[in-house]
Every structure is written in C-alpha cells, then in structure tokens.
Amino acid sequence: METVTHAAVLARFGHALSDATRTRLLLALRDAPGYPAELADLLGVTRQNLSNHLACLRGCGLVVAVPQGRRTRYELADARIRHALDDLLGLALAVDPAACADPEDVR
C-alpha cells in the first residue's frame, strides 16, 4: 500500500536525480567515495557548485560526509543506493537502449 511517506521519499530521490550534475555525482560516488576537490575536477564544476550539490544530496539523505582529519570524504549513505542506481540505469537502458548509444550508431 502506498503511503504519503513513501511518496515523499521517492520524490526526494527523484529531486536528487532531476539535476544532471547531481546524477553524475551520485554515479561517481557509486564507484567510490570521493573528496570535494577531486569530485569537482572529475565533473568539471566549481568547488562551490559541487558543494551546493553535495548539500542537496546530504539533505536528501543519499550521501554522508565522513571527516578525515582536515578533509571530508563523501560517500553514499547506504550500499542499497548503489544497487538502486544500477537498477534504475538498467531499467532506463531497457526502456530506451539508444539512450547511451554512440550517436554514429543511431541513424
């Protein structure tokens, strides 16, 4: 049975994924934890922009900050998020296989 709470949780996850930078950030963290400076370089965004996206993802409960001395490492809040991202990506590609195809192959 669907509840208001379930809908709110899924809406929060959807909000996190509604921005391409946040989605790329989640996919990067799916592969391995990371530090803000390296993540900003990887994604090609400013550190301030990345900080805003990390704050959003923390607010959604999807990532956590782990203090390590003077640095802070970010990682997915739960291993099940990695599986959910994998499942969601697999579903999206099953529905639209051309979504990740080489543009030269799609004619």
TrEMBL record:
Keywords assigned: DNA-binding
SMART domains named in the record: HTH_ARSR
GO BP: response to cadmium ion; response to lead ion
A single GO molecular function term of this UniProt record: lead ion binding
This protein's record includes keyword Cytoplasm: no
Domain HTH arsR-type, chain residue ranges per copy: 1-96
Pfam families membership: HTH_5
NCBIfam families with a match to the protein in the record: HTH_metalloreg (NF033788)
PANTHER family given in the database record: HTH-TYPE TRANSCRIPTIONAL REGULATOR CMTR (PTHR39168:SF2), TRANSCRIPTIONAL REGULATOR-RELATED (PTHR39168)
Protein name from the UniProt record: DNA-binding transcriptional ArsR family regulator
Native species: Actinoplanes octamycinicus
